[in-house]
Structure formats: structure tokens, C-alpha cells
Design a protein that fits this description.
It is built from eight helices and no strands. By secondary structure, the chain is mainly α. Keywords: Membrane, Transmembrane, Transmembrane helix.
Length: 191
């Protein structure tokens, strides 16, 4: 059972049908290079912690938000992360004063993203006798999948910055995440 939920967690984050997660990860690590991988791991783990908290609360039916709002808030988190990137782009490598803001944002946005999968996971866990182990396995799979995606992004970024500046990479990746996120946000405005 542990292996099945671990794989489910990895598939959840690496599934191209739910590319909003990948867009968020791209926006989240757009301003980082491979040399700053430790900071990125902390950032991604903060997101996973937030995701795990909400997933657990929703699974135990402590907290729920209507799906229409969750589907709207997820692209909003991507847009806000991209806007933070664009705001910090001019002083990208002069100071690191936004690190605490980024970690707090990743944690809070993880809370929102965790609600996106909670209904499906809740239905799977109702068939299980123990909820703790499958929930842990799912979240570990989620973290492993995220770190794999982030590693790919950082490697591609390192190749890119060999020819161009880190600011150019950050701007390109941020813009690449912002455009589809804005489209999703507009499409998902609750009526």
C-alpha cells in the first residue's frame, strides 16, 4: 500500500494533465540557479508541508472549500508567484531580502494546492483501514516528484545561463508560467 500511494503522489505532481503544479514549481524556482539548490529544496519542502497540512485536514473532513474556489485559487497562486518574481527581477542577485516572503508564500500556496486533490484522495483513503501511512506515502511521493521536476528546471536553467544571464532565464521562465496561469485564472473565475 505504501508503494501505491507513493507512486500516486509522484503521478499527481508529474501528470501533464495537471500541469498547473508544474507551472507553479517553475514560477517558484525561476529566480534560482543550480548553485542555490539548497534554498530551492527548502522552498519546495515548504510547499509540500502546506500541501500536506491541507490534504490531511480535508481528508479528515476538518476543512473544505468549494471546488470552484480551489480551481480559481490555484492559478492565482501561480500568478502571484510570477508577480513576485517580476518585482524582484531588477535586484535579483543584489540582495536576498525576499527569501522569508518566498518561503511563507510557498507554505501558504501549498495549503491551497493541497485542496485540489483532496476529494479524490479522500475517496481512496476511505477504503483504507489506516489513513496515516497512505497519507505519508502520498506526500513523500509528492515531494520526490517535485524535486525531480525542480532538478530538471534547474539543469535546463544552468544550461541557459551559460549563454544568457540569470535574469534572462528568470524572466523567460516567469513569463512562460505567467501566460498560461493568467489564462487559467480567467477561465476559472467563479460565477
Amino acid at each position: 500500500m505504501f508503494e501505491a500511494f507513493f507512486k500516486l503522489g509522484m503521478r499527481h505532481i508529474t501528470d501533464f494533465n495537471g500541469f498547473d503544479h508544474m507551472l507553479f514549481l517553475a514560477a517558484l524556482c525561476a529566480t534560482y540557479t543550480l548553485a542555490r539548490w539548497r534554498e530551492v529544496v527548502i522552498l519546495v519542502t515548504a510547499f509540500t508541508v502546506g500541501h500536506s497540512i491541507t490534504l490531511a485536514l480535508a481528508t479528515f473532513d476538518v476543512f473544505r472549500l468549494p471546488a470552484v474556489w480551489v480551481e480559481f485559487l490555484i492559478p492565482l497562486t501561480i500568478v502571484l508567484t510570477c508577480l513576485l518574481n517580476l518585482w524582484t527581477l531588477p535586484q535579483l542577485y543584489q540582495k536576498r531580502g525576499t527569501a522569508a516572503l518566498r518561503y511563507a508564500g510557498a507554505l501558504c500556496f501549498g495549503l491551497i494546492h493541497g485542496m485540489g486533490f483532496s476529494n479524490y484522495l479522500r475517496s481512496l483513503l476511505q477504503q483504507s483501514q489506516s489513513i496515516f501511512q497512505p497519507l505519508l506515502a502520498f506526500n513523500l511521493g509528492l515531494e520526490a516528484g517535485q524535486l525531480l521536476i525542480v532538478l530538471c528546471i534547474l539543469i535546463i536553467g544552468s544550461i541557459f545561463v551559460y549563454w544568457r544571464s540569470p535574469r534572462d532565464w528568470a524572466a523567460l521562465l516567469t513569463g512562460s508560467a505567467l501566460a498560461p496561469a493568467l489564462w487559467m485564472l480567467i477561465e476559472r473565475i467563479p460565477s
